[in-house]
Structures are given as structure tokens and as C-alpha cells.
Amino acid sequence: MLDKTIKEPPQRTRFVDIVQRVARLAITTELMQRPTFDKQTLMDRAAQAAGSDDFGDPWFEKPLAVLLQSIEKEAHLHEAGAWVAMKQCEKVLVDRLRAQQWFARHPEILARPLRHPVFIVGPMRSGTTRLHRLLSADSRFDYMRSFETITPVPYPDFTHRGHDRRITLARRARKVANLANPHTLAIHPTGPMQPEEELGLFVNSFWGMKHEAQWHVPGYGRWCEDQDATPAYEQMARLLRLIGWSQQASSLKPWVLKTPQHMLDLDALLNVYPDARFIFTHRDPLRVVASSASLAWNQTCIYSDHADPHEVGREWLRKTRLQIDRMQQGRKRIAQSRMIDVHYEAVDADWRAEMRRIYDFLDLDIDRAWPAMESYHESADALKRQPHKYSLAEFGLSEDVVLGQLGDYMDRFDVAQEPRAAARL
Questions:
Q1: Average pLDDT, stretch 130-141?
Q2: Whole-number pLDDT of residue 420
Q3: Residue 77 gets which letter from DSSP?
Q4: Would you say the C-alpha torsion 326, 327, 328, 331 has a positive or negative sign?
Q5: DSSP 8-state code for residue 143
Q6: Integer distance in angstroms from the first to the last C-alpha of the chain?
Q7: Which of 71, 267, 294, 423 is 20 to 30 A from 107, comparing alpha carbons?
């Protein structure tokens, strides 16, 4: 909800400050590991934990090295934030090792086809989550769940009929996130079993905007913008096959996928998924920029005492401009018959009519999907505890500045300015 009266961004809870003081004392007295961002040290620790040193495609080491350097030099993390960042990196490295173990144990995983996936592609905060969850309600599609994007790789003791410990981990992560900053769940309501974007599949390669929304790492972000992301998308495909296998899902079902990362990397996506179909979402850039900055701020301020909301605003305005430029360039490789444009305000006005239009594009009968989609729509509000309120002013931006940067996008895709009333995410 864009609100001109909001002048200051929300603050994290006292829980974070307490944890920070405890972490500082524990590190000083050597009760906790002192955070390190030495790449080889982290890789050695992961290899010892997993009992293997096969990380798969070594391409990931390049973004990992840049990310670690950026965290150390730019992010200005407090002691607890640095310790969490270190442990997150170790966890991802262990996941890579375990993925290779699963592929070696079950080579049939990598033979699973990924036919005609549907990608929902749009700027951050442009309504991709709503469309993704509506489509995921249809049993003819396969989708990732939140616990699978947090931990894409099953634990070594995983069995198809047993309890999946990743679900317990996701529940705990959600509780900690709520304690640290409850605004994050207002911005993106979710639960362990909810349909979720494939962000964690890129994190597995230490790739993408997730890191930029969590920490102030502009050097890393700009480095990624100049790289070919194809290897990250190839690893994403391998992990998607592993998740489909762990779900015991039919490989005949198309996946429905979404994350704003695709705005930047359409060329890489098309290299790996040449038969993909695309639903492009569009929204008033005044909302997109303010809401994106709010999402990033509400995470960054948890890990650092030096987060600057105006710096966050400038960065996400720049990033939104780049996403739109890259998206427009990438669309040139996609046949018109394989893409459709959907406007946020049109879905707000009549989501059923827009879903019927999407199903016509996908050449699917929508009638059998109505009951599940209606059920999702009725239950969606239960996840949302409070409206997400934000403004441009709290991030040092004005309407004139944003429209000066993104007005051409509105003209090109016939994007209307939204009224000031609250809208669904």
C-alpha cells in the first residue's frame, strides 16, 4: 500500500539487538566460531560435514568468491549477521555436495524431462506470487513449495514415505524471521507448504538478487550483471529434477515457475529451457520500486547496523530499470505465440477473467481448475497478517524521479498508475 505519509522505514525488533549482543559476547569469549569469509575454509568445512568433496560444476566458485568479498568489504554486517551469513554459505555448500551424492546414487534423476515449463516473469512486487499460486492450485502443474526453496536438496536419510526434516527447518526459519522482523511476512506471506519461487535453486550457485535483497553487496550485484548466467540455470534444472523426483511427481506435468531473477537472465533461461512459455507481469513502477525497496530494507536492516534506506532506494530503482531493459531485450528471442502480458491492475479488477485469458494462451481447459483456484483465493487472506505499507519518501525517492526513469516502460506496455487504495501482492 503506497502511502505518502510514511517518511521513515520500519525498524527491526529488539530480538535482533539481543541476539547481536549475545553473539558479540560469544564470539569474543570463543564460545561461537568467529565469522570467516575465506572461500577455501568454507568449502573444506562443508566437505568434512558432507563426507565428500564433489561440488559438481565448479562454475559456482566464481560468484561465491565475489559474494564473499562483497560481504566482507561492503555489507557492514554486525557479528550476528556475519555469523548467519557464514553459516548460510556453509549450508549451501553442503547442499551442493549432497545433491551430487543423490545424482550418483540415482542417475535416473538427471534423466527426468522438463517439458514446456511455464515461467511467470515480472519485476519484484508485480503480482507474480498471486499468479504463481493460482496456477499452482491446478493439479495439472507441478510447483516448488517453500521448504524446498529453503533447502532444495533432501537430507541423506530422506525416503519418499518418511517425514521430510526440511519441513521442520522451514517452520523454524519462519518463526525466527517473524521474531527478527514481522514486516517480512506481511510483505511476502508464506508457509512451509505454500507454492514458492525457485530462488533457492539460484542460491545453490551463489547467484542472483536474493543476496542483494538480504545484504548490501553492490559490488557482487554489478559483477553478476556482466556474467552469463547459463551455468546457474543448468544447476537450477538439475535441482528441479531432484525436487520432482523427491516429490514423486509425474515428469509429464509442466512446472510453473517464477522469480524476478528471470528478468535479468532471459537469455540464459532460454538456453536451458528452449520450449518455455512465458507470462510477463506488469505493474505501476511507483509501486514496484517502493515495494521492492521496502522488501530489501526489511531484510538488510536485520543483519547490519549501518543499512541506509536512501541507498536501498537508489539501488532498487537502478535494479528495476535494469530488469526492464534486460526483459525487453530478452523478449526478442521469444515467439509471440509463447508469451502473454498480464497487468497487475487487470488481475485486481477481475482475476477470473485474466486467468481465463491465461488458460486460453496455455491451451488448457480452465473449468476443471476453478474449484481449486477459488479455494486458494478464499484462503489467501488468512496468510496475510497485516497490509504491507510503504512509501517512496522513506527511501529518498519521489514520484517524479521514478517516472523519469521508468515512464517509457509504462508507455511501452500500457501500464497505468494505480489508485492509492491498498492492493493485493
A1: 96
A2: 59
A3: B
A4: positive
A5: -
A6: 9
A7: 267
CA distance 69 to 225: 16
Residue 99, φ and ψ in degrees, nearest 5: -60, -45
Say what percent of the chain tops pLDDT 70. Answer: 94
Q: Which of 236-261 are b and which e, b meaning 16 or more Cβ less than 10 Å from the residue's Cβ?
A: bbbbbbbbbbbeeeeeebbbbbbbbb
Rg of the chain over Cα atoms, rounded to whole angstroms, equals 21
What is the separation of C-alpha 250 from the centre of its chain, rounded to a whole number of angstroms? Answer: 25
Place of cell 543499512: 307
C-alpha 247 chain-centroid distance: 21
| Confidence band of 183 (pLDDT split at 50, 70, 90) | low
| pLDDT of 425 over the 50 cut | no
pLDDT, one tens digit per residue, over 285-317 is: 999 999 999 999 999 999 999 999 999 999 999
SS3 at position 298:
helix
Q: What is the residue whose three cell numbers read 519521489? A: 398
- pLDDT at 2 (0 to 100): 74
The architecture that CATH gives domain 116-412 is 3-Layer(aba) Sandwich (3.40)
- Angle of helix 61-74 versus helix 218-225 axis, rounded to 10: 150
Q: How far apart are CA 108 and CA 245, in angstroms?
A: 9
In the predicted structure, residue 58 carries a pLDDT above the cut 50: yes
H/E run at residue 334: none
Sort strands 118-121 and 277-282 into parallel, antiparallel or unpaired: parallel
Secondary structure percentages of the chain, helix, strand, coil, to 5: 60, 5, 35
Beta-bridged to residue 280, according to DSSP, are 121, 341
Cell 527426468 maps to which residue?
112
The CA distance from 71 to 58, in Å, is 21
Query: What grid cell was written down for 24?
Result: 558479540
Cell readout for 232 is 546457474
Query: Around Cβ 120, how many Cβ atoms within 10 Å?
Result: 25
CB 292 within 8 A of CB 123: yes
Is the pLDDT assigned to residue 116 strictly greater than 60?
Answer: yes
Sign of CA dihedral 74, 77, 82, 88: negative
Place 385 in a pLDDT band, splitting at 50, 70 and 90. low
